[in-house]
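> forwarded from #structure-qc
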């Protein structure tokens, strides 16, 4: 009986260790655990995810540099949408923070040594593309779009 219990625990721990995550923010450890994917690379691409205690502990360890009950509790209160969605044909997508963006494709002005971003992302109600800075949220938004519509970015 102990062997069966031990094997069960090891399998459960292995599944947790291999859980796929995706960034919801730009800080180290700001990740959620993916619980479901559907219709990737389609007009109705969806990825559902959950902020788990393990995600919160990772954030506290990697960004805050100290795992405390308060840090984990505060992190667990982060308000996120339960899923991200995209229409991969139009490039319209919504992030875990509920922000609406449009992927406009490769940036014709991209220069790897320069400041122009490789791809153009525009807020749904904006005209100017995100500038690629951490403050603009470019990397996180692009990462979420890549997860939903990998064929559009490759």
């Amino acid at each position: 009986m102990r062997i069966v219990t031990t094997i069960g625990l090891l399998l459960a721990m292995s599944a947790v260790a291999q859980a796929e995550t995706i960034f919801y923010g730009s800080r180290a450890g700001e990740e959620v655990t993916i619980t479901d994917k559907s219709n990737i690379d389609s007009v109705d691409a969806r990825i559902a995810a959950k902020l788990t205690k393990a995600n919160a502990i990772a954030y506290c360890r990697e960004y805050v540099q100290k795992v405390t009950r308060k840090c984990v509790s505060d992190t667990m209160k982060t308000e996120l949408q339960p899923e991200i969605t995209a229409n991969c044909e139009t490039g319209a997508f919504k992030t875990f923070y509920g922000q609406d963006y449009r992927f406009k494709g490769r940036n014709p002005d991209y220069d790897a040594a320069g400041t122009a971003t490789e791809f153009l992302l525009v807020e749904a109600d904006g005209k100017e593309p995100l500038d690629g800075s951490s403050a603009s949220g470019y990397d996180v938004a692009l990462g979420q779009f890549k997860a939903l519509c990998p064929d559009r970015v490759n």
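QC bot note: The mean pLDDT is 88. Residues 2-17 form the longest helix (16 residues).
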